Amino acid sequence: MNGSEAEKIALSYLQRQHLVLVEQNYRCRFGEIDLIMRDGETLVFIEVRMRTNEKYGGAAASITSKKQIRILRTARYYLTELKMESPCRFDAFLLSGINGQEIEWIRDAFGE
């Protein structure tokens, strides 16, 4: 399974949880955000990670502090482009196992 397949699984799952897609694979000079969705009034920036085994700490451990900073900067840039204030949060969507069958959705996984 590759990254785009993992994102499709995440998107489908989160839409079933009533989140609404705003942007997918948003890129700017600071980095990339896999999914930007709305959960009611809240704008949610979602990092999707896939790991087939727990060697090196698994999917959650792959969202390092450096990666978190890059996501935060990218989100700030996105919000300035929108020219609007919105409550927001940062979620992690983790897939593990051989076929990504183990799903963990962590709301408010990190932030400022």
Automatic annotation (TrEMBL):
Pfam families: UPF0102. It comes from the Bacteria. CDD domains: PoNe_Nuclease. InterPro entries: Restrct_endonuc-II-like (IPR011335), tRNA_endonuc-like_dom_sf (IPR011856), UPF0102_YraN-like (IPR003509). Signal peptide: none annotated. PANTHER family: UPF0102 PROTEIN YRAN. This is UPF0102 protein C8R28_100926. GO terms for molecular function: endonuclease activity; nucleic acid binding. The keyword Nuclease applies. Belongs to the UPF0102 family. Keywords: Endonuclease, Hydrolase, Nuclease.
